[in-house]
Design a protein that fits this description.
It is globular and about 70 Å long. The protein is an alpha/beta fold and about 400 residues long. It is built from 14 helices and 15 strands. It has helices at about 5-25, 30-35, 40-55, 120-135, 170-180, 190-195, 265-270, 275-280, 285-295, 300-325, 340-355, 355-360, 370-390, 390-400, and strands at about 30, 55-60, 70-75, 80-90, 95-100, 105-110, 140-150, 150, 160, 185-190, 210-215, 220-225, 225-230, 330-335, 365. The longest helix has 25 residues, at about 300-325. The strands form 4 sheets. It has a 5-stranded mixed β-sheet with strand order 6-5-4-7-10, sandwiched between helices. The chain has a 5-stranded mixed β-sheet with strand order 13-12-11-14-15, with helices on both faces. It has a 3-stranded antiparallel β-sheet with strand order 1-3-2.
Length: about 400
Amino acid sequence: MKRVSTNLDVRVANAEKVYSVLRRFGDLTKSELVGHVQLSFASVSNMCSDLEKVGLISVTENVRSTGGRKAARVSFCPDFAYTLVIDMHHTQHVFMGFVNLRNEIRDCTRFEVSDDDSLETILSNIKTSFDLLQKGNAGNILGVCVGVSAAYDPVTGRLLQSSNPVFEGVQLKRHISELFPEKMVIIDNDANLAGLSQMMEGTVVGKNLLSIFFTQGIGLGIVIDGKLYRGTNGFAGELGHIKVSGLMKPCKCGGTGCLRTVATLESIAQDLGEMKQLHDLVTSAEYASYLALRYAAGEERVIQRINLSAQKIGEVMAELFDLFNPQEIMLGGNMSPLFPYMKLLVTKRCKELSNLARAVDLQIRYVEGTTSELVLIGGGERMFQHWMETSFLNLAMIMEK
């Protein structure tokens, strides 16, 4: 928690309160703001004036007000600045987009990645794509956030257990910083960003949330008291290699019985003999939609295989609930087209194995956004939180002048 000791500290803390409430709720009158932040009307009015001076909010008189003092309406300015988010979680393509301060994707693009692309080729394509995006964006850039399907070691700066072998052991932050000099660069796991993508949801703010993110692997975003938990080395949430019962299928990690060998689209396609169909489609979610149609049509082998995935996901969720006691578990990613057919079995299995989950009626939420949308939105949230923690003081000092 930030220590409040000087007049400037108090001013910064109050400005953050006002700004955060406006970001969450949108337009409010000053009186409504007072109710949310529990400050005096004079303090709120002063904070609004200061925030307006630097362009973070706008204040307008309510022209429709009749009689008495007009109610000033205060609005959050989401396009004051943008985060460039680079989604590199997939091995076959890279998504890039500008995300504003309310985590709205303003513009995005993608480029394909082939098996023989070198690191230098991918970095060059990132720069080219950025230049194209930049032509339609005249706003300030807070920084660059990169989502990866890998563990990021903040001490060495290297990526570990990367889904794309070209990034294994690479100091990606250094390379991205060279592409975007003088910009803040943040590298984070895709599951962490998927979890953060839900932080603008009113029901999630300040809560304990687990976010299970299905891509080529399976990651876990752990949010405790509204903050992302990373573990001692930043590796927390590597869910794909947790062992599940009754499985001896070998995994890429060298072990057997890992969750990712039964609960990913790649594992399903492999068991159904349909790896070519999976790889021929533009996105893996298209294969999930194809499976969903076959499930609904009653294709028995598809039903059995999807139900097996649902059973094992439910087993792992029961363990997670007993360990973390979250208020909510969110599931998202490229499996989302299958969630309508899996969710009853997932919930049933989880509550069969966890008396506690059954006792408190565990809340499970299925998110429909694409994997890249979740990573881009989460990347915007990740950079926003960093900006508030490190740079908001600079704005407050400007306001003091």
